[in-house]
TrEMBL record:
It comes from Vicugna pacos (Alpaca). Its main location: membrane. GO terms for cellular component: membrane. InterPro entries: Marvel, MARVEL-CKLF_proteins. The gene is CKLF. This is Chemokine-like factor isoform X1. Keywords: Membrane, Transmembrane, Transmembrane helix. Residues 13-133 form the MARVEL domain.
Length: 149
């Protein structure tokens, strides 16, 4: 009698490494935005971090509820990688602009949290990029035809 192999259960998104990085990215961006709001920083600081909080929250809900599996017409990992890289650029730019003049302590703290969030944006993009590869375990190895037989 043949034995049936059970499929290994997939971990929920919130308990995966990608989920932890994305949630940590959300927490750091919210903290940065909070310090910018408390310090009454210029509006672009608050608006850009607010947009990033909204987009990160959208992706967390999307992956948690598994909507990425239901909506197949959009390639979600590619959108997530593009978002991560654009967010990293904007967060680095905003954080550097916040750190250069050193106007108030809260703006400097918000800039430091923004730089930490940009590091996690890059890490999040790298983790999701591995999902884009068809062979996520490593680079493509080309073999000769005569080696297959």
């Amino acid at each position: 009698m043949p034995t049936l192999k059970q499929k290994p259960k997939q971990r929920p998104f919130c308990f995966s490494v990608k989920g932890h990085v994305k949630i940590l990215r959300l927490v750091l961006t919210v903290t940065s935005m909070t310090f910018f709001i408390i310090a009454q920083a210029p509006e672009p600081y608050i608006v850009i971090t607010g947009f990033e909080v909204t987009i990160i929250f959208f992706f967390i809900v999307l992956y948690t509820v598994r909507l990425d599996r239901l909506v197949n017409c959009v390639f979600w990992p590619l959108l997530d990688v593009i978002n991560s890289m654009v967010a990293a650029v904007f967060m680095i730019l905003i954080s550097m602009l916040a750190l250069i003049p050193e106007t108030t302590t809260y703006i400097v703290i918000g800039g430091v949290f923004g730089l930490a969030a940009s590091v996690f944006c890059i890490a999040d993009g790298a983790l999701i990029y591995r999902k884009l590869l068809f062979n996520p375990s490593g680079p493509y190895q080309k073999t000769a035809v005569h080696d297959r037989f």
